């Protein structure tokens, strides 16, 4: 990933932002709940992991295994954190958005 | 408590997830379920959440799996998924084309399978709802029925008196709350028309004990159960919707019950049900009458209690023992041997239907297995005729895995279709059940009013059917894979009995015969029980009797005089109806329960009053009652018009009373006393009449004392009219007669005596089980006979050559027939023996359903065995005849 970063999809951005927000507590169920709470839409754990897996594959997220607990029926956690190229990709996405939105005003929709 | 997430949902998702993701995803789900969702929405909805998350995650899990395997595979290699799906689709398409060419076979297989799945899902859904699903209350496992033991009735649970209830409520430490309930009916007058509606009376704290909150208004408090308090009512959801249009402003309004204004203070939620008073529409505060408060010996109230947190059942029983000792100390005369116990609320509700349901469930399990067996038989029969095709396909280069897959696809397609059709049919069966079973029965069991097909039951049946498909599919598929193409092309199945497929079919037929024997034995035992039961004389002539109930209340019928006037006037008018040959009244009809009881004391006798042997049923009857019902007078006299309120007190007793309670001489002329009459008058026994069954046809007879209505009247009583022809046709005339005396008076529970007999628990429950077992048994019989026929027919076809050789070598017709019979009778005999052994082992579980028939009844067992043998012979007939017609010349030249 040198210089050029591929664009991020909307849900990918949402997932990465949730990971940043959660900091040290960024693992599956928390990420899912964070997205549900902030976006108000239902997200399955499966869909969350598909995107996490893809972002990890692109090198935007880094994963590390955590310790198991009784609540988790003795299964390990997988924590996610953002990589430098992930941060760059998010920045790029935001800049792109800002550039595209510059000077646009949606009068028609505002009224309604 | 640590609720376990739904195992099946977890297993499904776990299977689909790639191993690298399995632990973290499932761990996340479990953690969120345990930590957050259960606390937020409760266990049941949390389970739903878990299911939803798991199933909706399945597509994502499949994508994860593809990504992982793509990453693992080297770039040049084609991915495994890329051609399995299209090939499977090809297999399925081929199977569909095949079945389209043989629609009869496919239809038969699918229908057989669907039958098994349909009855299983429907019955499993009902059984789960009744026996296992938690009652719709908060923390239902801590709810109990608290009762005084009725020592006059084999220590069954009995009711409590008001004082006992108050003591229990005050002294018990083990129960965090205790509430009482009782019930009856009231005349609801709305917009001019009067209707009798079922009500329950409950103490304060009743809804709180159950953990139910009204959706509108509030519940009862202590002031409502105090005599003289405000008259209030809480509406059940159904009554609120139906009778008051779901009016949201109903709270605070006033409705008329028994001509008295009651203020509506609350409305209950739709999901609320209380099966012990299942039909209840209106809930009233339980305000005890003066006598109910004063008479400690009068047991009429039922109590429920919620076990306090942290209390064990052992502690609770010790606590109740203390309460019971208190009762004995306070009232040694009537409570000398008082015992207070408790049992799970569910047990009290469903205890008496459990044996019937378990028998049906077991029968249905057999039906499912039998259906699977016959599907297996059909598939195997078909495959054995396809060895040629398989050999050909193998010869032109199909790999064995390819052939196995083809066969599996076919059986999966059939069983899958059977499962889906079966689930739909199961749903339909449930609808039929809900609409045909009488409302009172439905309402007396939990959850049945709002029954829908259980997703778990459907899933279970579907997976069962697919599993059958797989199991049945694998065996022949593997056999097909092993067959060398040359062999199968050469022989085209000339040998038979030694082949694995032949043996498998015989084994299946044997199993089917065993299933049929078990089901039919059950049906035979129950049939004999029913026959015995319906031949029990109820003690009266039940034909052509129309019955109904009235309840005289309100200002108009204040005191005994107006009640008696109405009573006598009504009897006169009813007797005058054309087609009526007499009318009578009784305060509670026979076969509708034990009703009021009392402890009888002979004049001048001392001693403990609560001895169980003193308890007798008490009834008030019109003078005409014995004659109209056809109850014989054994000694003495019946009541006469001269037995008035002012004349000496007289009673009749039944034969059981005369036999059990006689103090040596004849009971006629003896004087008896009952505690509950003011002034303790002495009643002289003037006659002995024949026994009547009050409790139920399958219950013991009990001693009865009959009072004349003229001397002991109440406003609520039943009317019986003896008619010359169809009793139901007289309904209008009876209504008109009542209306001519009091136009506003509702007559309710109009039933013929035959209906009462048919709907009584003793008859109704056995009839349901019997009819199901008969239907299942006959179907199993048909399927197994057809299966046997199929096996024998194939035997004859495949051994034509051998038969031909034998005939050519001089075998007589007798020998040929013997060959067929041997192959037919062996599986039949084994099946019958195994079936009877299983029935004997299982019959003891159905013992409570049997009536005066031993579970080892030799007649029933013999009948079933003979029936099976006869049908086996019939199944042998045609194949044997065909074998006899085998012409040695053509048989040897053929092929």
How is this structure best described in words?
- The complex is a heterodimer of chains A (112) and B (895).
- Chain A is mainly α.
- Chain A has one domain: Winged helix-like DNA-binding domain superfamily/Winged helix DNA-binding domain (Arc Repressor Mutant, subunit A), CATH 1.10.10.
- Chain A has 5 helices and 2 strands, in the order H-H-H-E-E-H-H.
- In chain A, strands 1-2 form a two-stranded antiparallel sheet.
- In chain A, helix 1 crosses helix 2 (28-39) and helix 1 (10-22) crosses helix 3 (45-58).
- The longest helix of chain A is centred in the last third of the chain and has 18 residues, at 84-101.
- Chain A is globular.
- The model of chain A has no long low-confidence stretch (mean pLDDT 85).
- Chain B has 895 residues and is an alpha+beta fold.
- Chain B folds into 4 domains: 7-78, no CATH class; 140-350, no CATH class; 498-536 and 761-895, no CATH class; 553-744, no CATH class.
- Helices cover 54% and strands 15% of the residues of chain B.
- Chain B contains 28 helices and 23 strands.
- In chain B, helix 24 packs parallel to helix 27 (858-884).
- The longest helix of chain B has 54 residues, at 19-72.
- Classes of the chains: A mainly alpha (112), B alpha+beta (895).
Q: Which short descriptors sum up this protein?
A:
A: 112 residues; mainly alpha; 9% strand; B: 895 residues; alpha+beta; 4 domains; 8-stranded mixed β-sheet; 6-stranded mixed beta barrel; 28 helices; 54% helix
Regions with little confidence, pLDDT below 50 for 5+ residues of chain A: none
Strand residue percentage of chain A: 5-15%
Domain module count of chain B = 4
Biggest interface between chains: A-B, 23 and 27 residues
- Please estimate the helix content of chain B: 40-55%
Overall pLDDT metric of chain A: 85
Helix vs. strand class of chain B: alpha+beta
Report how far apart the termini of chain B are: 73 Å
- Global structural class of chain A: mainly alpha
What's the story with the biggest beta sheet of chain B?
8 strands, mixed
Oligomer: heterodimer
CATH architecture classification of chain A: Orthogonal Bundle
Uncertain runs of chain B are 74-82, 492-498
**Count of DSSP E strands of chain B?**
23
Order of H and E elements of chain A: HHHEEHH
Name of the CATH first level of chain A: Mainly Alpha
Structurally, how many domains make up the residues of chain A?
1
Shape estimate of chain A: globular
């Amino acid at each position: 990933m040198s210089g050029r970063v591929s664009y991020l999809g909307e849900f990918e951005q949402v997932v990465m932002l949730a990971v940043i927000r959660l900091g040290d507590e960024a693992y599956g169920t928390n990420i899912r709940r964070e997205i549900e709470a902030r976006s108000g839409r239902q997200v399955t754990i499966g869909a969350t992991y598909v995107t996490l897996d893809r972002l990890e594959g692109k090198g935007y997220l880094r994963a590390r295994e955590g310790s198991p607990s009784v609540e988790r029926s003795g299964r390990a956690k997988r924590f996610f954190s953002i990589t430098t190229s992930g941060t760059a990709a998010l920045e790029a996405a935001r800049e792109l958005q800002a550039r595209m939105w510059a000077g646009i005003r949606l009068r028609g929709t505002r009224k309604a | 408590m640590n609720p376990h997430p739904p195992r099946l949902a977890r297993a499904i998702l776990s299977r689909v997830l790639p191993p690298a993701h399995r632990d973290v995803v499932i761990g996340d789900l479990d953690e969120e379920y345990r930590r957050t969702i259960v606390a937020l929405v409760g266990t049941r909805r949390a389970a739903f959440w878990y299911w939803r998350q798991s199933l909706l995650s399945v597509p994502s899990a499949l994508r994860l799996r593809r990504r992982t395997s793509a990453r693992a595979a080297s770039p040049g290699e084609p991915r495994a998924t890329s051609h399995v799906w299209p090939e499977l689709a090809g297999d399925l398409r081929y199977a569909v084309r095949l079945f389209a060419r043989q629609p009869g076979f496919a239809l038969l297989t699918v229908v057989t399978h669907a039958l098994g799945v349909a009855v299983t899902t429907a019955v499993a859904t009902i059984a789960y709802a009744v026996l296992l699903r938690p009652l719709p209350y908060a923390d239902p496992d801590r709810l109990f029925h608290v009762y005084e033991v009725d020592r006059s009735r084999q220590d069954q649970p009995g009711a409590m008196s008001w004082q006992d209830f108050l003591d229990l409520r005050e002294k018990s430490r083990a129960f965090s709350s205790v509430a009482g309930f009782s019930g009856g009916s009231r005349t609801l007058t709305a917009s001019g028309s009067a209707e009798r509606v079922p009500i329950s009376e409950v103490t304060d704290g009743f809804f709180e004990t159950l953990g139910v909150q009204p959706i509108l208004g509030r519940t009862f408090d202590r002031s409502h159960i105090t005599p003289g308090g405000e008259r209030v009512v809480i509406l059940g959801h159904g009554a609120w919707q139906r009778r008051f249009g779901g009016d949201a402003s109903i709270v605070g309004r006033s409705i008329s019950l028994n001509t008295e204004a009651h203020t509506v203070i609350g409305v209950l939620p739709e999901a609320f049900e209380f099966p012990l008073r299942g039909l209840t529409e209106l809930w009233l505060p339980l305000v005890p009458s003066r006598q109910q408060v004063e008479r400690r010996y009068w047991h009429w109230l039922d109590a429920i209690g919620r076990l306090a947190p942290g209390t064990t059942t052992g502690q609770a029983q010790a606590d109740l023992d203390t309460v019971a000792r208190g009762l004995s100390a306070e009232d040694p005369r009537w409570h000398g041997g008082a015992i207070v116990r408790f049992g799970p609320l569910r047990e009290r509700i469903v205890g008496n239907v459990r044996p019937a349901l378990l028998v049906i469930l077991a029968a249905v399990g057999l039906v499912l297995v039998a259906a699977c067996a016959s599907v297996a038989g059909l598939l195997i029969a078909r495959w054995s005729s396809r060895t040629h095709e398989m050999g050909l396909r193998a010869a032109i280069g199909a790999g064995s895995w390819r052939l196995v897959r083809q066969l599996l696809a076919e059986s999966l397609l059939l069983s899958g279709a059977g499962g889906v059709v079966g689930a739909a049919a199961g749903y339909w069966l449930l609808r039929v059940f809900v609409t045909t079973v009488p409302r009172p029965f439905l309402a007396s069991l939990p959850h049945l009013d709002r029954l829908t097909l259980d997703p778990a039951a459907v899933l279970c049946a579907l997976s069962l059917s697919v599993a059958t498909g797989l199991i049945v599919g694998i065996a022949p598929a593997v056999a097909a894979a092993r067959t060398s193409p040359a062999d199968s092309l050469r022989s085209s199945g000339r040998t038979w009995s030694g082949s694995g497929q032949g043996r498998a079919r015989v084994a299946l037929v044997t199993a089917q015969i065993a299933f049929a024997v078990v089901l039919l034995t059950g049906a035979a035992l129950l049939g004999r029980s029913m026959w015995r039961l319906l031949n029990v004389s109820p003690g009266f002539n039940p034909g052509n009797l129309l019955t109904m109930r009235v309840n005289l209340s309100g200002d108009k019928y204040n005191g005994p005089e107006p009640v008696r006037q109405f009573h006598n006037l009504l009897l006169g008018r009813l007797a005058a109806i054309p087609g009526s040959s007499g009318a009578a009244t009784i305060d509670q009809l026979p076969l509708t329960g034990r009703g009021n009881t009392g402890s009888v004391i002979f004049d001048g006798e001392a001693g403990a009053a609560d001895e169980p042997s003193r308890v007798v049923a008490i009834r008030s009857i019109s003078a005409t009652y014995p004659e109209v019902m056809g109850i014989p007078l054994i000694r003495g006299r019946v009541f006469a018009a001269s037995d008035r309120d002012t004349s000496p007190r007289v009673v009749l007793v039944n034969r059981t009373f005369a036999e059990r309670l006689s103090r040596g001489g004849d009971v006629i002329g003896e004087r008896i006393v009952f505690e509950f009459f003011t002034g303790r008058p002495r009643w002289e026994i003037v006659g002995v009449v024949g026994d009547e069954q009050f409790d139920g046809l399958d219950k013991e007879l009990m001693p009865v004392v009959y009072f004349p209505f003229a001397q002991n009247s109440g406003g609520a009583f039943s009317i019986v009219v003896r008619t010359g022809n169809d009793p139901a046709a007289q309904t209008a005339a009876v209504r008109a007669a009542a209306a001519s005396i009091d136009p506003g008076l509702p007559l309710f529970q109009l039933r013929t005596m035959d209906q009462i007999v048919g709907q009584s628990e003793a008859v109704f429950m056995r009839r349901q089980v019997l009819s199901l077992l008969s239907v299942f048994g006959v179907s199993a019989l048909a399927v197994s006979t057809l299966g046997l026929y199929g096996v024998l027919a194939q035997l004859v076809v495949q051994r034509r050559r051998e038969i031909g050789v034998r005939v050519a070598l001089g075998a007589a017709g007798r020998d040929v027939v013997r060959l067929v019979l041997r192959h037919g009778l062996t599986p039949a005999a084994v099946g019958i023996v195994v079936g009877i052994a299983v029935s004997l082992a299982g019959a003891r579980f159905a013992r409570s359903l049997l009536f005066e028939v031993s579970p080892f009844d030799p007649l029933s067992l013999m009948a079933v065995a003979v029936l099976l043998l006869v049908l086996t012979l019939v199944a042998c007939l045609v194949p044997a005849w065909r074998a006899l017609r085998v012409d040695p010349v053509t048989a040897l030249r053929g092929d």
